[in-house]
Specification:
- The complex is a heterodimer of chains A (about 80) and B (about 240).
- Chain A is α+β, with helices and mostly antiparallel strands and about 80 residues long.
- In chain A, about 15% of the residues lie in helices and about 40% in strands.
- Chain A has one domain: Ferrous iron transport protein A (FeoA) (SH3 type barrels, Roll).
- In chain B, about 40% of the residues lie in helices and about 15% in strands.
- A 6-stranded mixed beta sheet of chain B has the order 2-3-1-4-5-6, with helices on both faces.
- Classes of the chains: A alpha+beta (about 80), B alpha/beta (about 240).
- The interface between A and B is small, with 11 and 10 residues.
Chain lengths: ~80, ~240
């Protein structure tokens, strides 16, 4: 049931995506990789802040919040979850 | 009787400080917030008549200097060259944790990998094949629970094997793409000529290719003075670090 890749920032709460690409560059890219935002890894969208940004993600068994600047540059294919 | 230095490296929240306190009997504060270990703590423990100086490095996800913590941990391993680097991993989140283990193994083979929270992992139904991980990484791998004191004897035995040189690790060597390997091959002689054989030249070449200016300035300071740069201590009382 994998669909076309969308930015993580566009995924709905509760959905799970498989990361297909990371457009972030430089030190921050390294940081995201260290935290588990690796191509092929699954990410669950947990919840959003009241204003919609940042968004909390579950990756490698840890909760990480990302701002839209980053999450809009990480792409994933929806693979399931209640939000789809 | 000999004296050895053991550096404790690991991601935040892996129970690294709990293990450190258990072994050294210190009451260095442990707690569940980010960037807690801002300076390196030191203690001592004895095993089979060998005395070990234990150094608790800041908890980091990486040694690629995104922060002062990572710089401190990296500089310690590179410049102080502990007899053993103990990499503490969280058994319930091995995938991310192994990232740091790999980075340490690229620097030094004098390492022991310690998979902590093994009791938690078993509760979650996670089964870990220690033998397979040890074979792949090329260094001893031990499963422990610092909190419930499981596997500590075995851990100390493996630390001793690496510290005394009874065991010589053949750490996993990562082969990169042809382009990167060529870059390393070109840089390697220059790096060896500049920093000498005392430092992990291949790793430094890799970091140079990555444009790691923080490592470069640390190296420069170290080569000029012959000592580590003054640790960048950051006062972070209650201020959450970005992890």
């Amino acid at each position: 049931m994998a669909g076309a890749a969308i930015p993580l920032s566009e995924a709905s709460n509760g959905s799970t995506l498989r990361i297909s690409g990371i457009e972030v560059q430089g030190v921050l890219r390294r940081r995201l990789l260290d935290l588990g935002f690796v191509v092929g890894n699954a990410v669950e969208v947990l919840r959003r802040s009241p204003l919609g940004d940042p968004i909390a993600f579950r990756v490698s068994n840890t909760t990480i919040a990302l701002r839209r600047e980053e999450s809009s540059l990480i792409y994933g294919e929806p693979v399931g979850g209640e939000g789809i | 009787m000999s004296r050895y230095t053991v550096a404790f490296a690991g991601n935040p929240n892996t129970g690294k400080s709990t293990l450190f306190n258990l072994l050294t009997g210190l009451r260095q504060h442990t707690g569940n917030w980010a960037g807690k270990t801002v300076t390196t703590a030191e203690g001592e423990f004895t095993h089979n008549q060998h005395v070990y100086r234990a150094v608790d490095l800041p908890g980091t996800y990486s040694l690629y200097s995104n922060s002062a913590d990572e710089e401190a941990a990296r500089d310690y391993i590179i410049f102080e060259q502990p007899d053993v680097t103990l990499v503490v991993l969280d058994a319930t989140s091995l995938e991310r944790n192994l990232n740091l283990a790999l980075q340490v193994l690229e620097i030094t083979g004098r390492a022991v990998v310690c998979i902590n929270l093994i009791d938690e992992a078993r509760k979650l139904g996670i089964d870990i094949n220690l033998k397979a991980i040890a074979e792949q990484l090329g260094v001893p791998v031990v499963a422990i629970s610092a909190r419930n004191q499981i596997g500590i004897g075995e851990l100390l035995d493996q630390l001793e094997r690496v510290a005394t040189g009874a065991f010589t690790g053949k750490p996993l060597k990562i082969t990169y793409s042809a382009e990167i390997e060529q870059g390393i091959a070109e840089l390697l002689p220059l790096v060896e000529q500049t920093v000498g054989s005392h430092y992990p030249a291949r790793w430094i070449a890799l970091r140079l290719l990555d444009g790691d200016s923080s490592l470069l300035s640390s190296l420069k300071a170290h080569l000029e003075t012959g000592t580590s740069p003054v640790p960048k201590e950051v006062a972070r009382h209650g201020v959450p670090a970005c992890h």
